Amino acid sequence: MISVFFEYSFLTYSLYTAIMVGLIAPLLGVFLVVRRLSLISDALSHITLSGIAFSLLLGKHFILFANLNPIYMGMIFSVGGAIFIERLRNVYRYYKELAIPIILSAGIGIGVVFISLADGFNTDLFSYLFGSVVVIRYSDFQLISVITILVLILFFLFYKEWFYLSFDEDQATVSGIPKKILHFIFIVMVALVIAASMRIVGILLVSSLMTLPVAAAMRWAKGFKQMFFYAIIFGELSVIIGLVSSFHLDLFPGGTIVLLNVLILLFSILLTNKR
Amino acid sequence: MNNKNKYAIEVELVSFSYGQRNVLEDIQLKIPQGSFLGLMGPNGSGKSTLIKCILGLHKPNKGTIKLFGEDVNKFDRWSEVGFVSQKANSFNSGFPATVFEVVSMGLFGKIGLFRFLTRKHKDKVIDAIRQVGMEDYLRQNIGELSGGQQQRVFIARALVSDPKLLILDEPTVGVDAKSVQNFYTMLKKLNVERNMTLVLVTHDIGAMTEYITDVACLNKCLHFHGGTKEFEEKQDDMISSMYGHDVRIITHNHDHDHDHAHDHDNLKGSTHHD
Looking at the predicted complex, does its ipTM rise above 0.90? Predict the structure, then answer.
């Protein structure tokens, strides 16, 4: 079944891209979940949508943008949204979670306006919303490889600081860990990973790839390191099986990947309940 | 020891307010190295706020704070300061981390950015865990332990970086009475054997007068600061002056001391004076 993915180069790229996404999305997702920020990925994916829509709109009117991969504009919007969220979390210090619905609705609002200006939905947009097996270009593959390498390097460099900040922000600050800059790097990473993952899973479902494998991992893991181990295994299982089956069944991969994640989560809950 | 470093903490005329509400007024408090100070006061008296100022987490509106002779804003030897906060406040008990992982966090600041835990560090972590008697729980998730055990793990985390100053903000809330006694004994040992300066915020000064060397009483202003003996002599006057009227409360009601709780008519401070 999977062999067809190695016969055509565009399918090979999408498989490799999916494997990278299945690694980095749950990796950062662990920190998001334990910091109780899992909804941030939703807000950022919606603001990515407005970036994509903006890029498609520009492409319609300016020849210069027609060949630009919309993922770049998506990334710019996503990182911008991430910075806004951090700002808003400081503005509403006692209602930090407010930043998330603000950015989420702003993202959808801007996105819808741009989409209507660009004369509505087309199949291209649908592939951004729900993911696609066939649209991954070599340039997507390259960009996502760069992001993956960057995320992995930063993860190994700042693992202990991010771990401490997630567990106990006050104590971490007292011990001299530079909280602000590390939060900033982290949220920018999340924004980039969301923009990167969206080609495979689609904007509307990207947050599930960051949270569901982590939710399942929580049922099994003893300790923080194991969280990553399980979350990545579950993420990869769902991404690879989901992608291959979506190709054969002619479905959007976003749907199959998320459904597999839900199945893994259900099994995890059922199997660990007795313990 | 030169004069400059005689004090672990120097608080000079510090005032702090949350918006319009003054929480601390002109606090002046010098804590010599090697002492074991019990900092007491009713709910909402600003104890936790003062601690946060000392740790540089809050910036006072007025006044200066020095740690080991150095202004807190410039102080950078944070690995010499251990801090154990009110457990209920700052800790998510569902967090998936083992005892070993939690205690190793205490070294992260000292190790610094771009460096990793070595074999030597790991030995230190295990050593600190052994000191608090939790070595049988190394690989257990912190959420699976009892309140008293969790608190011991947090002490180990504070100890692992060999601090010279250890600040504990109501560390015994939610811990059973027997564990509390063991806990104070352990602190006393650290104070005596390692000459570690200890500051312990508590409601319950009565239960620990035999362990501490000094007492400070806080309710917005500093009402008393002196040796334990002196405190015991003046205790009754002081408590009524601090609480505003004559109170005799002997209940053990461990409410969490949020900075916002500010109810003078309904005091829940559990103060022993038999």
Answer: no
